[in-house]
Amino acid sequence: MLPVLFLDVDGPLIPFGAVGARSAPATGGGNPLLSRLDPAHGTWLAALPCELVWATTWMDDANEVVALRLGLPRLPVVDFPDEDPPGRVHWKTPGLVAFAAGRPFAWLDDEIGAADRDWVAAHHPAPALLHAVDARHGLTRADVDAVAAWLGSLSP
Ligand SMILES: [Mg+2]
Question: Which Pfam family, giving just one, matches this sequence (predicted)?
């Protein structure tokens, strides 16, 4: 089975930083944040040898509005447990480990911390790459290259 790549939307695919005067506000009642989506991200991600999975509060709206604009197909969506994990562990982390079910996984998110790495190391038996993306800039080619290199390092 292919490794999983969990994708956050807010931060990595919709950067929070000012994107400059060239970014015109959306018209016609659309969500202005969607103008920050970069179709190149979809091209980069689709080329990776892994299964792309949404890991975002957008839930299935990621398929309805984000995937289309990135040129991605409908993707699976992680359903997160209601209860929060202990300490500084991100509320997404246990749900991702459960979804991966022992498969190697990478995770692109702007809110990854040391507690998440520790929790995954203790609860996930396979390799994992928790790669923090800078939400000011969003996903960069260097981020995707890091994931590609990690995927390439996995034994078949
Ligand atoms: Mg985020």
Answer: HAD_SAK_2
